[in-house]
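Hey, quick one: can you model this chain's 3D structure?
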Amino acid sequence: MSAIKQVVLDALHRELGAKFGPFAGYDMPIQYPAGLKAEHLHTREQAGLFDVSHMGQLRIRARDGDRATLQRELEAALPIDFDGWPLALQKYSYLLNDQGGIEDDLMLVNGGDEVRMVVNAGNRDADFARLTALCPGLEIDWVDAALIALQGPQAEAVLAQFDAQAATMTFMQARELVLDGAVCMTTRSGYTGEDGYEISIPTDRAQAIVRRMLADPRVAPVGLGARDTLRLEAGLPLHGSDISPQTSPVEAGLAFAIPKSRRSGGNKAGGFPGAATVLAQLDQGVSRKLIGLQSSDAIPIRAHVQLLDASDAVVGEVSSGTVSPSLGRPILMAWVQSDALSGGATLRASVRDKRPAVAPVKLPFVPKRYKR
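Sure thing. Here's the predicted structure for all 372 residues.
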């Protein structure tokens, strides 16, 4: 068993009084002395700073230097289309297996002669191996840099103090900002539903830049605990909890990331791993779905709780659940049989000896506030 790893800013988190826990092979700050709820609400009201350096950052280029090779091989590995994809724009996609299951979900930036990719921490090595096997004509390298997320309604004002160009960016745009003299690949994106940025900072400059950000009274350090409650309120699935190699993008409600050109009848239809299954599901529907539900009962409903219909038959299972810090009621994402959702049927959660009612709701639970 390999030793647990530390992020670059480990010492700073300890100085700030963080409580740590293992996550995807890393010792990560889970919360700070203010506590999860305070961190969550501060992000909604001002700006939260998250260290997500455990995520994998990749730079991908064609070995022969030809952009056409880069595009051709990545289009064979992922359900993406470079045609009509503007430079410096980030896209969401996924790495699928041959059965159409989600091996990982990814963020990609079109950099012209290169693509920058961010992969989930727990899948770093597996993703690298799979991409290398699928794309022999590509050179794939790790980026040695810290990754920081600055999220919340004050994020723009805070980051614009470093580089005024931050204020001109819109949702999913990428740009190299200069922060205290360091060139930092930055995207206007995040995992909270709030406006904000994800910033790749050279390792040797990360501590000084993060300290300056935290010196701003609008910015508070936020751990993985509040990151999870924020993303759940935003209806954003977590790989390893809500989505996995056993779930497809269509079942998970993530088919928006598959362009029309890669679907049946498109000029680049299919041609990616799992395409036969995914395209069939798009055309014919699915027998189960990942949905959002909420309850008015003051009973926390956590992952792996079974969902029952009116006859007490098991029709689903919770994949993520919490008591929403913003709404003050239980919210959850769950896998549910499609036929159990017809006619507005009310479901119940099996929580020990209690059966709180849960009602399907359209995601997100809390409106997203991206700057478009």
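One thing worth noting: The mean pLDDT is 97.
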